[in-house]
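User: Structure tokens for this complex, please. No commentary.
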Amino acid sequence: MKAHDKDSSVRGRVLEIMRMSTEDGPGIRTTVFLKGCPISCGWCHNPESIKPGPQLQWISTSCILCGICVATCPQGALTMTSEGIRIDRGRCRACGNCAEACPSGTLELMGREWTAEDLAGEIVKDRAYFETSGGGVTLSGGEAALQLEFCLELLKILRAKGIHTALDTCGMVPPAHLEKLLPFVDLVLFDIKEIDSKKHRAFTGSGNEKILENAKFVASYRKEHLRRHRIWIRTPLIPGATAAVKNVAGIGAFIAENLGNAVERWELCAFNNLCRDKYSRLGIDWEYADAALLTREEMESFAETARASGVNPAIVSWSGMTLLDTETGGKDREADAPAKPRAVLKHGCATLRTMED
Amino acid sequence: MKESTAYQHGIKEPSGLSPRIRWLRDYYFKGNERAWNNSFTCWTTGTPWDEVFNEMTFYIVPETFVLFSPLCGSYLQAARQVPLHADFWNWSIAERRAWFVKEVIVNHVPREVLPGDLIAGARFNVQTSLCLNSKEAKEWNRLVRGKKGARKAVKWFHDHGYGNAGATSGHLIPGHERLLASGWKGVHADLVQKYNSLEKNEQRGEKGAQLRAMITASTMARDLAHRYAELLRSMASKEADNARKWELEKMAENLARVPWEPPRNFWEAVQALWINHMLIMTDENYPGPGVSFGRIDQYLFPYFKKSISEGMERDFAKEILKCFWIHCNTAYDAMIKNGHQGITAGFGQLLTLSGMGKGGVDMTNDLTYLFLEVIDEMSPILEPKPNVRLHRNSPDELLDILVSMIQSSQGAPFLLNFDERSMAGMILEGERAGIPHLINRDNVHDYAPVGCLENTMVGNDRSGTVDNNLNLLKAVELALTGGKDMLPCFDPMTGKTEKMRRDGPATGDPAKFKTWDEFWKAYAKQTAYIIPKCVELYEMSESIRARFFPTPYLSCMVKGCAEKGIDITRGGAEINFTTMEAVTYATTVDSLLAIKHLVFDTGACTMEELVRALKDNWKGHEVLQARAKNRAPKYGRDDDEADDMAKRVMELWCEETWKHSTVSTKRRFRPGMLSWNYWVGGGYIMAASADGRPRGQFLSNAICPSNGADINGPTSNSNSVGKALGGKAKDGMGTWGDYINLLPNGASHTITFNPSILRDPEHREKFKAFLRGYAANGGTALQINMLDPDMLRDAQKHPGDYRHLLVRITGYNAYFVTVGRELQDEVIERISHNKM
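Assistant:
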């Protein structure tokens, strides 16, 4: 957490290390969520992953309301209210003193610093499971590629240890970063969220030109350098945003035309909103809080669109949570209809995580 | 958190059952409503001093302590008198007992065959007279119930939070393979030959008496089988249905032959196995627990192969096994009329499938798969309990089937045993006990688990796998107080509080300790006190059993007894251990870590403050408790510092355990971690612990991390367990290959998974890979549970106990207790509908 000035080793800011991850590439993986993201998707499930710096978080569940943090904070940023500890984000400098003092671990500084070597040591602990499953490490975020030097060093160490490596990227990164990382990456998980650049800007704050260029770059790099890295494209389907036939067909056409057979898999990921509480904890009104889940039929239909979009149909798959049968029809549903918020997204830019532990 | 079993959900329905099996299964589950049952029948010599109940076998079940007097009384009251042989009172206890048990089961206990059943041998639960003369009975009474008797001693040990110990029945794997191969005829001939070759004075001595008792016992199965054969012939003669008539005649033929003669086919072999097995429960007056079958898919395979080649249909083999299944379950009828007493709940007659053979070859065969089909089709059902042995070369086909069974049963309807780690422990045991001729690299693959997961050799081994259950945490408590109980002992029965005194060694006032090392030394001293304390307690019941409770029938089935002319209860088996099962392991490790962290490393409190907080059950010390719970390191997170402490604790208590043997029977103590359900009940007896646990909250279970400590998921949890057991030594420098295992008995490990891990073929592959990874890194045995709605509802009520509970919903991962109530309900709904 504090600067270790004497140590020359590069440090990365890590949001979380998730072991036995089964969703971020092949096999059993350790997914490292790095902090900081260049885009801000309205539906983001890791709002705490966007800022590159550390952030303080308070979770009510195990707080014993002892008030030690309030007394500890040098900025006077914490107050005890009837709803618990309130963080004045304008004052908080994320120094971590309160988290250090907190006896229950309910105040947590998200974004710990790690050296590549220490982190690699943590990752290789699951080597046995990587080997039996064809798994490895996935660098995710936030946007991992933004922390170039750190990722580079980490990937080099892991490669030398024979660990399979995957990079999960939103694509909005300098191509030079990708160029440096790709030689050490076995699999790229590449998000293409929206094919219409205007809409992309509206949803995420940026157009998609750079992303699409980078997608092409990753595919062509593979060809030119005879690299064997595989590419999986991931598309989050967000109701009222990216979940549109035109978008899916458009992304498919883009893949077919530009990425060709470099893409091994194209995953459509159904939206959920299990992270609603994170937003409320951060005091943010989340525009997708009330968005309903997609139905299984809708997802099947999107998958059908994808398969007919010009790509090799075999690469298309979908995942994520859909409405329960009991929620899509029948009397029970009508009572609490219309849009009782329903759970669960995965992957926008990153698998949604909560951070309490 | 409450333990959830695969059987709770009621989602899985039995399938593929014939009308015959469906009827038998449904009839069984009518329970108390059934006209027929296998409840204990009780039999007395009719003497005024007679005893028919051996309470010592339940000393490891504290819930039954209050029942001893009523049970002793009511069994005796219900007992029918058996006319005795003219010479009865001139015989040794072993001869009396052999004759009496045989007389009861062959000539007095009624015999029935249920409609459609293909296996005979119905009632076997009995309480038979201990066959003591008045002098012996008086002595038994004094030793068991006297002021300094075993009953008082075990109660003291339990009430003071140390645990329990008692010479318990069952819990071994008899030599079924040998019995089938030679038939009882062969065993009998061998015994007669051994007896005849004794010198005259030896014949007149104890050895001769023991062999005579065993000779009597060795004809029990034959005589009972012949009675069943008579019954079946008479049933057949009255049977109108031709198909059933044929079956009854065939069964009569089977029983006229086996188990006296060696079986010639699969049906005969299963019939013989059943009779041989059930009579152990008769002989020991003990309904089932831990009387295990060993590698049944291996030793029945030749009979199966032969019958298949002679035209037996595969389905008929399954039909025979399903009848066998029903018979195993009737063991539970023992107390069907006076209420189940916990002693008959869900453990047991374990059978072992698959596993490696000599040279690491996989031994899975067609019969293995047939057994798995039977398990799948019969489940949910409690008995027999399957344990599947896995190793690094287990075939994919086997794992595919196991994973699909786990998926359809919402949890594993079997335990998994892991060969490499287990075998490393067995080899260690052979070395430590100086019996490498009995356990070595060339035969260790023949091992099999008993009861649940307790590894032993087969056919020559009694290792008392549930006999000693010790709360390691007691040593931490004593180190914190300089040798006294933390809280005065209160007896709710008498309403009295005992006067506080120092029981353990005086290790000094810990407040004066300047370094962690001083505390560790005090802890080590107290550990070296509680273990021999348990050893002493065990000696009481062990020596009484050795004097008064021979089991000559069982002795015939375990190699060594005939050779030595010594009953199995006196240490006759070739391999004789008794197992110290450590309870509260993770709570102990975490408490030590917390003391080190709070008092010595961070100075968050003084030792006095900590002890005060524990005496106050953390009331008024919530900040310190929160620190203990949340800031101190914990075992189970693959954190090397914490896991090193775990290993240190492990090495310490194991070393101490190996030092001891029973005096009366010369059985060496060996270490293990089973901890059955004591972690629940013990939580109410033991004072608050330094890991932040208040009194009344559950202790840790077996080798599992403390509840809530496992926050890094299944791989880190498993890695910690593997490290605690000793980890690995590279380049084959372990005890078995790279593997080290300090616990020859093995250790119980449970992991709860999210159903979504099995949601599609891709994820099922990942789960298989996890199991293979576990074989490389994990422990000796694994129980796989799936998240169930009840657990989640409990988590809503007690979020603090479930901080680690990660729900994974098709790729979305969240700690359950941190998502809002509404979304929690949603998750519960989804799990209930199996729609993750």
